[in-house]
Structures are given as structure tokens and as C-alpha cells.
Write a structure and sequence with these properties.
Blueprint: H1 9-22, H2 31-42, H3 44-63
Helix pairs in contact: 2-3
Length: 64
């Protein structure tokens, strides 16, 4: 289902070890999450507003 975007455990372990060696606090081994995590960290209020809108839409769909 996820295809090529799934990392092998060895790839994750390698990235974690590199992050530890570099002294990084946040280690994000998958390139696809780096952007969203950086965005969330730089504009938290906007991200939270977006998540609230998404939650409302999900609740509306669930309610029928």
C-alpha cells in the first residue's frame, strides 16, 4: 500500500544513529515528514487552526 515511501528498519536505524552522532534533538528519518514537521514548528497557530478545521470536517462526515 505504501510502496516505496516505507523505510526499511535498517534505513531508520542508520538515520537515528546519524542523528545521535550529530547531537540532534529531533530525528526525522523520513524525508516526507520533515517538511510538515518544520511547518508545524514554525507556524504552530496556523497548523492548529488547520487541524481544528480538519477535525470539524471529519466530525461532520461521521455525523452524516
Amino acid at each position: 500500500m505504501l510502496g516505496a515511501s516505507v523505510l526499511d528498519p535498517e534505513e531508520v536505524a542508520d538515520e537515528v544513529m546519524k542523528g545521535l552522532a550529530d547531537g540532534r534533538f529531533l530525528i526525522l528519518p523520513h524525508a516526507e515528514v520533515r517538511g510538515p514537521c518544520a511547518y508545524r514548528a514554525t507556524d504552530t497557530d496556523r497548523w492548529l487552526r488547520g487541524m481544528r478545521r480538519l477535525r470539524r470536517r471529519i466530525d461532520e462526515v461521521a455525523a452524516g
